[in-house]
Amino acid sequence: MSAADNIATILSSGARLTVPLAFAACGEYVAQRAGTLNISVEAMMLGAAFGSIAVASATGSATIGLVAGALVGVAVAFVHGILSHRVQINTFVVGLVLNALVLGLTSYLITVSTFTGHQVWQVNVPGLRDIPIIGPMLFVQRWPVYLLLAVIPLTWWLVERSRWGLELRAVGENPQAADVSGIEVNRRRRQALLWCGLLAGLGGAYLAVGEVGSFNQNMTAGRGYLVIAAVIFGAWRLGRTLIGCVVFGLADAMRLALPALGVTMNSQLLIAAPYLLALLAMLVFATTHREPRALAQPFQRGTT
Amino acid sequence: MDVDDKLTPALTLRGVSKRYGPVVACDAVDLAVRPGEIHGLLGENGAGKSTLMKILLGLVHRDAGTITRGTEPVEIDSPQVAVELGLGMVHQHFSLIEPLTVWENVILGDTGRIDRAAACAQVEEVSRRYGLPIDPHVRVDRLSAGERQRVELIKCLRRDPSVLILDEPTSVLTQAESAELFTVLRRVVQAERRAVILISHKLAEIMAATDRVTVLRRGAVAFHGATKDTTAQELARQMVGREVSLQAESAALGLLPVERPAPVAGADGTEVAPSAAGPTQEKPAVLRLREVTLLVGGLPMLDRLSLDVAPGEIVGLYGVEGNGQATVGELLSGLLVPDSGTVEIDGRPVDLVRPGALHHAGLGIVPEDRHHSGVVLDMSVAENLVMKSLAGVTTRGVLSRRRMHRIAQRQMTEFNIVAPSPDTPLRSLSGGNQQRVVLARELSAGPKALVAAQPTHGLDVGAIEDMYVRLRQAAAEGVAVLLISTELEEVMALANRIAVISSGRIVGVLPTAEATAERLGMLVGGVSH
């Protein structure tokens, strides 16, 4: 293979590995802007990955599986929202419990059931796919990738231009002020979580029925945490958050490509690479940005 | 202006009560506010004003009583309902979202699609109608306190409220800005027949700006009547529940003119250079800030600020909120580290990065926000009292509760701290007693210098008086006292010298004897001489 081919391969696989992160990051970004430091994004992704394969296997349609996966993400978000923005349980505790619960549950269910493999169809644009280096990355992808390209501007528009988004930002910055302005703080936060669940669900489902075609135990392997890191790395701006996702995705692609390129490294170390990168990124950026002021602060009327 | 008593009130409260456990915050309060009047609601802190307003805004649910809007009884169970009923409130601590622009803040809580152009046009229209100039595209965190209040007012007025409530609106304003505000309010009631409720603990303000006044004392209505038929003295008596005679009290209540105390022994009032509190004192300064610059978010909160405090004197650091006094307070609490410049105590620079360095160097601090950085509310009185001198009550890492109790008992007696026992959680004490705990702890450590930041904020008159006496006493005993305050009366009543801070710089230092409200007002406004 030529060097150009190698680069094209890495870019193309980097793009594929970025997609689940980017979906989930669009969701996590919204949740955090509304003030929820949502760590159950891992549970949303993992649950969705399992759900998508299970439903795809039962219906024979990978697309129905993808939709089902998104709904699993929404379900996790719904539970999280009720527990932390209605019953007011500490959001980290809720997130940790949900992550452990979904990991345990899917690990058990995969041992007692057998699923057939399914994958959503691939877009393959003749002509354009032959553009050197970037052709395969842009024009040979499974269809949810192109859905992502619509989700990103939609998310930006929702947060920055819609009234819902304005209210979300207000709620994430100063819930007391939002409350006296007549905004239902916890309701907005639950809605933001549902959006997060939908997109994290799509991301997780893409991992299963898009990328791999099957489910294996702990399939997301901490990708949800990388997504949280990307939002922080991106200083709560969508563009920078997505750049973070691309960096993590490329790091992952490098990990997969290096052995094929003849570079031998300890494979465990390679697996750790994206997370190491996330840690370094946070170290560099942790001091420079301004987070939503009420991030991770619960709201209850009457407490000041 | 005369108000017809037969007019249907815009808002009527009858027998409204609210208890928090054993504490009665509001006790069968009656209040009627008519269209076209400014109704003053006067009371000490803790008299129930805030609770009453929270009930009106749907933030707190009342236990008993009725609320009538016009002729209709209403239930206000959420802020959304309050807005729909035409009740608008300008909050004491602004309820604006700082990273959002003016117009975004103004339309918060509306429904429907966002129309940026229409929103901005509306902001400009309201701003023109009331004479509240503001640029709708500016982000709120770039605005001064006075401008933020304009935004709050515009936000309220745009929703066309029939009752406008202002909670301590002048606490962050200069005198000129306050006057401007009252002009706008006059227009709101006279031309548009709205009702205004003005909550305040400043008598002068109530006397000057209101048509009727209701005085709350310990949750109950103590007085009600037309402002022109009463006097400030009378209101003061109703508010406190006894004759007000002490100078400190009058000053605290905003009754002018202010008496100037004789200089405390050990201090002198010699002329001082206007640009820095220069070392013209005979005794060398104990507390010295030298060219301190402190940036917050890239903006200078303190700009090469220099200030000296000699032993035995009280220096008042005066200015309008948001000009850097709070930053000085936080700096001297050890919460902030300056970007350049030094803080010296007794001639030695203090390494501000080390936790507790200022305390060990001999600086006592009564912080502005005691709940934030002064005390631990859920710990006991005794624990709070010994918190900074744990070495004295521990043996090889084991806490001696007996010694702790003994020390606490002694300080409670000495400082008149009223609490059932040293083991009472601090949370259940009144604000005044909590503040006494802070003061007792700081003074018991035998500080060389004491910083008191807004020491009487939120205190009742008795506690204010007590605080004044203690601060004077500390100065008389040779402690260098820095009083950081936004209350002109307080600074005039206590300080030997007044340093005026504006935009993070000391713009002038005057001996109190030479300070007049006009001179200080000009300095505060940034007019240097």
Textual characterization of the structure:
The complex is a heterodimer of chains A (304) and B (529). The model of chain A has no long low-confidence stretch (mean pLDDT 89). In chain A, 50% of the residues are buried. Chain A is built from 12 helices and 2 strands. Chain A has a two-stranded antiparallel ribbon with strand order 1-2. Chain A has helices spanning 3-33, 41-59, 62-85, 91-112, 135-139, 144-161, 163-173, 175-180, 185-212, 223-233, 238-260, 267-285, and strands at residues 122-124, 140-142. Chain A has one domain (3-117, 135-285): ABC transporter involved in vitamin B12 uptake, BtuC, CATH 1.10.3470. Chain A is an all-alpha fold and 304 residues long. Chain A is globular and about 65 Å long. With 529 residues, chain B is an alpha/beta fold. Chain B folds into 4 domains: 1-86 and 161-244, Rossmann fold (3-Layer(aba) Sandwich); 94-160, no CATH class; 257-362 and 447-529, Rossmann fold, CATH 3.40.50; 375-445, no CATH class. In chain B, 32% of the residues lie in helices and 24% in strands. Chain B has 18 helices and 22 strands. In chain B, the strands form 5 sheets. Chain B has a 6-stranded mixed β-sheet with strand order 6-7-8-3-9-10, sandwiched between helices. In chain B, strand 17 (394-395) and strand 18 form a beta hairpin. Chain B is globular, with a radius of gyration of 24 Å. The model of chain B is unreliable at 255-281 (pLDDT under 50). At the A-B interface, helix 7 and helix 8 of A face helix 2 of B. Chain B: It comes from Micromonospora matsumotoense. Chain B: GO terms for molecular function: ATP binding; ATP hydrolysis activity. Chain B: Keywords: ATP-binding, Nucleotide-binding.
